[in-house]
Amino acid sequence: MRVTGTGHASMRIDTAAGSILCDPWVNPAYFASWFPFPDNSQLDWETLGDVDYLYVSHLHRDHFDAAHLRDFVSKDATVLLPEFPTSEMEDELRALGFTKFLRAPNEQVVELDGGLRIMIQALTSPTDGPIGDSSLWVEYDGVRLLNQNDARPTDLTVFAELGHVHAHLLQFSGAIWYPMVYELPQSAKTAFGKQKRERQFDRTWRYIADLKADHVFPIAGPPCFLDDDLWQFNDIHGDEGNIFPDQSVFLAEYAKVGGTNGIVLLPGSVAEVTTSGATTTHPQPVEEFFANKAAHLEEMRERKRGVIEAEKASWRHPEVDVLDGMKRRIEPLLEESIYLAKGVGGPVRFDLVDYDGESVESIVVDFPGKEVRTYADEKVRYRFRTERALVEHLLHIGEVDWVNSLFLSCRFSAARIGQYNEFVYAFFKCLSTERLQYAEGWYDEHERTSDAEDITLGDWVVQRRCPHLKADLTRFGIVEGDQLTCQLHGWKFDLPSGRCLTSVGHKVRAHRADASAPTP
After folding, report:
1. Is the alpha carbon torsion for 389, 390, 391, 397 positive or negative?
2. Rounded CA gap, 461 and 516, in Å?
3. Beta partners for 136?
4. DSSP 65
5. Where are the alpha helices (DSSP H) in 77-230?
6. Which 3 state secondary structure label does DSSP give 157?
7. Nearest to residue 7, comparing CAs of 312, 217, 178?
8. DSSP string for 250-278
9. Reported confidence tier of residue 518, pLDDT bands at 50, 70, 90
10. Consecutive H or E run containing 78
């Protein structure tokens, strides 16, 4: 099995029975904030895109690059489609010209032509990508590969049971806006960023230990930030709280925990994977490339400056009445929402900075009141500050997912009172009736599903499944004193009260092992 690195989470998998192109991303994403690094725009995409199969793991724009898919990927390719709860991915791919689809039943092995076998695990929580993320398992002639990319399954057993895996490709770096955009003292940002960076690596080590593959390939990160306004987010400034470590940092950290089987793929690197080993060739020495990372970024910044400026010029739509547009887009969804509106539980404020960079229009999304209106000088739980032009553009194009656009762009600042509230971001990911109804149904089912099984962790008896996203706490749970941490997403719980310390809601059931269980 030949694996060609094509940048970020993208790769081409070649076997004698067929080729699969995964997650090709080349064009800037999220309001021209994210670029693939190392740069992959100069690869021979005409050749790379001439494949038998296309696999897109989910709709995040650093995985689903519509322009590149339209222009460079063969429309004769059969799309390996995850079993997602909505038809959005298929609809978007059909609009780009793809006509051949293989809808892979979730977690079922599918036999393709010539002895090529695949299995896709689809994750369908509203917090998994935009309504879904997925992983792809591939087997040919006894060689097995797992492309986990960004996905965070609670368990890799379903893959391990299919036989020993020889190549494990997975995310290790940050792909979020926290804590950089929060209006906090720099010392606090550094401390929170350091914690997040450590959690990212801890989660990666756990997945690697679970699967026990022969070779581990760090992929799906980090992006690079070439706009002058975002340049500080690149991990070249000696900031220990930077959440975007690169592949060379992964190898160094992996070595600290005993990892010796890591393989980095630069764009154009080729790994020949067999049941007995892997041989890799690179377009240039990996160590030398990352030693000169800052210079590569500077050169890339100058080369892409015109691309960024052209993108920025397209965002302004002064003809858009933002308040009216937000009312028409959001208020009908507020009326439909029960769980998300209740979960947010208060007003959320948007401060929109006008073209002059100074004047501000403040708009409130009032979740309890089910309305969008002008800010009335009340206390709010969440506040976002961004350029008016960005929201104009979102309304102009009818964007249904502000997380997969505005928030991931990092082109905003945020402040909040109290804990992180996942429902805020879940709602702004679901600005269509189809998405909202799915999310409401998911939370309804999630809330009503009982979790009767208990386990013992240290001195405590707790429910086996994490209240957040059902991670198995026998594997991901750590108890320190009276506090439980689920390492899958880093969520913390106070065991005596059951209260979630990370977000609102999500109470855990727990009691001391030497005490009787409380009466329900």
Report:
1. positive
2. 10
3. 120, 147
4. -
5. 88-95, 157-160, 186-211
6. helix
7. 217
8. HHHHHHHTT---B----TT-EEEEETTEE
9. low
10. strand 78-81
- Cβ contact 53:78 at 8 Å: yes
Q: What is the pLDDT of residues 78-101, one digit of tens each?
A: 999 999 988 999 999 999 999 999
Contact 124, 442 (CB under 8 A): yes
Report how far residue 44's alpha carbon sits from residue 284's, in angstroms, rounded to the nearest whole number. Answer: 16
On the 0-12 / 13-18 / 19+ scale of CB atoms within 10 A, 142 is: exposed
- Locate 350 and state its tokens: 């948007």
Helix, strand, coil % over all residues of the chain, rounded to 5 = 30, 25, 45
- Tell me the average pLDDT of the chain: 94
Among 255, 161, 176, which residue's Cα sits nearest to residue 216? Answer: 255
Please state, in angstroms and rounded to a whole number, the distance separating the CA atoms of residues 48 and 40.
Answer: 12
Q: Hey, CA dihedral for 61, 7, 17, 273, is it positive or negative?
A: negative
CA distances to 361, 378, 386 from 358, rounded to whole Å, are 10, 22, 11
CA 91 from centroid of its chain's CA atoms? 21
pLDDT band at 155 (very low <50, low <70, confident <90, very high): confident
Tens digits of residue pLDDT in 286-322? 999 999 999 999 999 999 999 999 999 999 999 999 9
Task: Extract the tokens encoding 245.
Answer: 């470590």
CB 27 within 8 A of CB 40: no
Query: In the predicted model, what is the mean pLDDT of residues 59-74?
Result: 97
Instruction: Say yes or no to pLDDT of 131 above 90.
Output: no
Supply the pTM of this predicted model: 0.87
